[in-house]
Write a structure and sequence with these properties.
Layout (H helix, E strand, L loop, with lengths): L2 E4 L1 E6 L1 H10 L7 E10 L3 H4 L3 E7 L2 E10 L2 E9 L1 H8 L7 H9 L7 E16 L2 E10 L2 E9 L3 H14 L10 H9 L2
Antiparallel strand pairs: 1-6, 2-9, 3-4, 3-7, 4-5, 5-6, 7-8, 8-9
Length: about 190
């Protein structure tokens, strides 16, 4: 699938809350490890359009994803990259691919304006729960580690219901939770 609408709710967790949730739901014992490499222009044009561009590496598989605002959540546009293409991007030799390139061109973002701005590695545990995907992320970037709950599903109502139930049942307060790229960029700018 080259495009999809992502509907998700997020909440930062303490390490204790993270461990508690992990023990309460049916998560796999071992996480999936992924590294996100984020790209931006010197003028932060993507951020200005409330968008983000990343390559996600998971088990030597590379996916280039552009996230853009959408009325129902985020529009994600994907292109698969082979190892050589991913390494080209990571080494500053950026060439557009069919799906993400079309979207970036429509945003007037030039390939030569993009560069690698940072990376973030996440240990991710996922489980299906009440018709939605519940995710626990333990992320590392710069000298920071954080813990996050994500609930993703087919409708705002389904996601909101499970998200609020989980927080309420486990006495976890709702916290302002910037997305991963915002947290990374905030840390890098300090």
């Amino acid at each position: 699938m080259t495009q999809e609408i992502e509907i998700e709710y997020k909440n930062l967790l303490t390490k204790t809350e993270f461990k508690h949730l992990k023990s309460q739901l049916d998560f796999p014992e071992l996480p999936r490890v992924q590294t996100n490499y984020y790209f931006e222009t010197d003028q932060f044009e993507l951020k200005g359009k409330r968008s983000a561009l990343r390559i996600r590496e998971t088990q030597q598989t590379y996916t280039l994803t552009l996230k853009e605002p959408h009325p129902d959540g985020l529009l994600e546009t994907h292109d698969r990259l082979n190892v050589d293409e991913a390494h080209e991007w990571l080494n500053g030799h950026i060439s557009f691919h069919p799906h993400t390139g079309k979207q970036l061109n429509s945003m007037n973002i030039a390939s030569e304006a993009l560069s690698l701005f940072g990376q973030l590695t996440t240990k991710r545990w996922e489980t299906r729960y009440k018709g939605v995907l519940v995710v626990l992320d333990h992320s590392h970037y710069s000298d920071v580690e954080d813990f996050e709950l994500e609930v993703e599903g087919p409708t705002q109502e389904a996601v909101s219901t499970v998200f609020n139930e989980l927080l309420s049942e486990h006495n976890i307060p709702i916290r302002k939770t910037p997305n991963k790229i915002e947290r990374l960029f905030t840390e890098l700018s300090q």
